[in-house]
Amino acid sequence: MFHRHQARPSVKKVSELVDKRSHKQRKYISLMLVPSYSSGKTRSLRIPRVVFYCIIAAIIAVSAITAGFYLRSERFADQYRSTREYLYDTQDQFEAFMALSEYEQNRLMEESLQMYEQLTEEQRMARIDQNILRQRQQNALNDLQIQMDELEQMIREFDERQQAVIDGLSTRRIIPAVSTLFDQMVESREAKLAYSLLWSEPVLSVDANQADVGFVSFMADSFVQITESMLVDRIEQLTAELELQILLMEDLESYHNRMDPHLRNFPTLWPITAQISSHFGWRTNPMGGGGGEFHSGIDLRAPSGTPIRAAGGGTVTFSGWRGGYGQVVMINHGSGISTLYAHNSVNLVYVGQRVERGDIIARVGTTGRTTGAHLHFEVLHNGNAVNPRSYMIEHWN
């Protein structure tokens, strides 16, 4: 039983006298607990309204969730029953199909035996010889097809290897000597390919999957009799193509060997793998003071001590302190190309030393005029600074 708690009247502020229901009365709800036996004592329980409403809301929410779970479980149970019935029906259909299939197999076997018994002895022997011949022909066809597959696989591998090398060399045509040799190589390959196409003869392409035991194939709605000589001709054609690929590969390797010294010396390697913090060209003075300055290289931000690698092979022409550059290493790569590595914490090479592409020559530092640890990298062509980003086409691997 619920009733509102009646507070004792008292003299309060004027605003409270006007509002006869005090704030304290509205804040609580009283519950009267009446015992079922007459001798019991009636008790009252005062509960804050907020708590009471929260309890009611919680009871409603729990009831709604329970009802939702119940309805969902009933729906899943219906789906389970329908799925089980569908599986039982499918199993029955499969068993019926297997029984029918077994019956048809037995019937065909009986018919074959009856037909075989009706043949004469000579017909039986002729049929056996014919089957043996067909089997031999099929085996020969399979052997020839295996040879063709192996030759085609070798041709594909040669072609993929050549294409990978050609693609790699094409990205290095910025190297003058490589560009000239690359053009000569392309002309040589085109000449060899033109010569091979001039003297090659078209041969029927055969797929063993298209031929039956009797070497007969239905191709493009036409009846074609495939002979063993046609397969041999196809193998000869593939052999000639493989020999051409080998010749092209040898030619490619010859040109690659001639390009190799230029590839190893030309500075196409990133000296460190890091983010570019300042690009080549005009920029705002990073040391403050306003105005702009020409940045003759690029800055690569990296922690102090990071190994710096030679961007290409060459000879060390400078290793020491150079004003605002701090510790500097310079390498001459030939063909008028040099590289500069500045702000190093320590140099690991000496003047006159021969270094190879990827050798560690110094470590990142903050020496000289810097705002933090980084590598200042320059590329110079005949003494003039050029954009290093045009040369940096690969990372150290």
Largest sheet: 10 strands, antiparallel
State the helix count: 6
Number of strand elements: 17
Q: What separation lies between the terminal Cα atoms?
A: 84 Å
Query: Which structural category do the helix and sheet elements fall into?
Result: alpha+beta
Radius of gyration: 45 Å
Succession of helices and strands: EHHEEHHHEEHEEEEEEEEEEEE
Mean pLDDT: 79
* Quaternary: single chain
Give the DSSP E fraction (strand runs of 2 or more residues): 15-25%
Number of structural units classed as domains:
3
**Unreliable parts:** 1-7, 202-224
Large-scale geometry: flat
Q: What is the helical fraction, as a range of percent?
A: 40-55%
Description of the structure:
This protein folds into three domains: 118 residues; 132 residues; 116 residues, Glucose Permease (Domain IIA) (Distorted Sandwich). It is built from six helices and 17 strands. Helix 4 packs parallel to helix 6. The N terminus is likely disordered.
List keywords for this structure.
397 residues; alpha+beta; Glucose Permease (Domain IIA); 3 domains; ten-stranded antiparallel sheet; three-stranded antiparallel sheet; 17 strands; 22% strand; flat; disordered N terminus
Question: What would a concise description of this structure say?
Answer:
The protein is an alpha+beta fold. It contains six helices and 17 strands.
